[in-house]
Amino acid sequence: MALSMCIIMLVADQMMYDRYNTKRDRIYRVNSIPKSENGSEQSETATTTLPLRQELLENYPGAEKVVRIMRGFGNMWIELEQNVNIPVAGYFVDPEILDVFEYELEYGDKRTALVEPYSVVLTKKAARKLFKQENPIGETFKVGTQGLYKVTGVLKETTNKSHIVFDALASIATVKSMEATSRFRRDIDNWYQFTAGWVYVLMEKGKSGEDLSPSLEKIQKAHFTILPKPETQRKVKYSLQPLMGITPGPFINNPIGPFLPWVFIYFFLGLAGVVLLTSCFNFTNLSIARSLTRAREIGVRKVTGAMRWQIFVQFLSESVLVAIFALIAAVLLLIMLKPLMMQLSFARIMKWDLEANYFVYAIFFVFAVVVGILAGLFPAAVMSGFQPVKVLKGFTNLKLFSRMGLRKSLLIAQFSFSLIFILSVIVVFNQLQMFLKADHGFSMDKKAIVYLNNTPSQTLKTELLKFSNIESISAASHIPAAGSSYGDGFKRSLDEKSWTDIYYFNVDEDYLKNIEVPMVAGHFYQPEAGEMNKKFIVISEKAVETFHFKTPIDAIGQEVIIQKDSARFQIIGVVKNYNHQMLMEKMQPLALIYKPEDFQLLQVKYTGTYEEAGKTIEAAWAKVNPNMKLDYKDFYEEVHKLYDIFFGDIVNILGVISVLAILISCLGLLGMATYSTETRIKEISIRKVLGSSNGSLIYLLSKGFVSILLIAIVIAVPAAYFINNLWLEQLAYHVSVDVSTILLGVFALITFGALTIGSQTWRAAYIKPVQNLKE
Are strands 236-242 and 119-122 parallel, antiparallel or unpaired? Predict the structure, then answer.
């Protein structure tokens, strides 16, 4: 019940997003559905074209306010990749955001707070982190290389949950005022850039999304029927998503904040249902097992005039009462479990907050009553149906269930669920180990990642190479196989009909030497070529196939065109294939491009220990950029971080559920074994007197329960094999549900079952027959 309530709290937490907003039924987000060159629709994205705001306000009716929320200010909300020198995570926004999302200011004037360039509104938490004074209005702080921002507002601290997560909101007027901001200018006015930000529309009272859809269709036809530059631009189709349909909602690309798709909600609820169902099975099983010991009580009550419905209500009430007591114990257990759950990496990343309120506790109470009714319904129906003549005559003659009755069926179901969970834990653990130990095709040993954070890469590289424990250094845009890279469309000539999507990394001339990947044909970037390297490109063997070159040698000297700006590159080399993406994906074609302005990190290969290398990096950084904080990590850990976060958490969660499931099953088996032993105590005594050995008695008492475990194994193994193969087949590189995995799971189940059964059969086999035959 504690585990189920934990999941209820998680679901309730997700359902509370944006419910505080009194205008929630009038707010919609405009999403984009990009189209391929053949017109087919691709995955929906939460971002859209930012010029849409002015178009809707000036030329179309129905929209009361339209708000743009734009990337680029501070860090992103997700904690995986953040610049330690930027103190806040936030967005550039229109001033109307405070009204549309009903953000209240504790300090400042909401009418002017986000009007002027370089003005910023902070959350209360961010204000406390940045400033000592209670009211920091008028104070300034630096945001990376974007300059100084003036605090013009501080939001009130509330328990309201919004799907938009931020520390600070900067005025969108800043974008056009920043120096060297061609990227921002192009994105903010560009109809064909649909990934730079999000657009929210507050409809006029009495208007709905249906009234806005025709306007969006007209805008779409006006701007996307004929593309000005079809070689670099894509058509998009607009779609509306109501505010209350965002979290939880469908899975879409580019979410603005943490959200749980409905599929995960259903999965968690199903998980809670399975765990609770096995518990209810156990309660039903135990109730039936002890029903015969209360048979005379029921018979006497019926003889003295009790009606069947009265006995039914009595037993059902007892069940509900047990469930309510379980609820109290579960709440106490939940208080202890919650900190552990909140420490899960996934919980921290998704910013789960499992705070319960009166509504949640009311759900808990109703939940406990319903569980009590479901668990007690069948035992109450069975026990209230006892015939007084039979039970008063001799309850030992009363056969409630035959050999394969309900009790055994329930136990089989319980142990089947337990084995499925056990096998799943083993499979997920094996998959995680495979990811952690797999050969990606490049070297990860003795390397550190140093995040540049706007530090000149060549300057830091030169300083680091002065130290004797530094072997080689390479600058790059991304960490290979860590889950992120650039990607764009490529063609061999503009005459080709479609663009080929290819991942690419921006790297320097030492990249291949650093990760120890060999060339197959041609050569890599040369240091003496300098800026000329920008005209060249190096591709992988897989890219050679994708571009339909016959051999790697044939690719050398050929040209390819990149979609974003139609730049042409000459192929100078082909590298051996390696897994530059996470191992969930099949090996994809890769391009390595020389573009120093996009370098985000250094890959530093060292000798000696990581701690010694860290001191070297700190010393070099202090000389090159002493005013900025240093951020460096172990290369291997950064590559495998996402594996640990997702698969590691799944192993922990399924492990806990497996332990619970097997304990619940064993408790049911213990109850049944105890009852069986107690009802056969005289038979056992007589057999002992007649010369039966202890071994034969243990076999006699255990064989029925062993058959239960065997049937559960026959049911669970194919089910676990099928269920786990469903998700394993979605991964490009995966383990299999092999014989060793099945044998290990079965061994664990049999061990627990044997200990449970043995505790009772062993006790029964060694009883003193004289004592029992006297009674």
Answer: unpaired
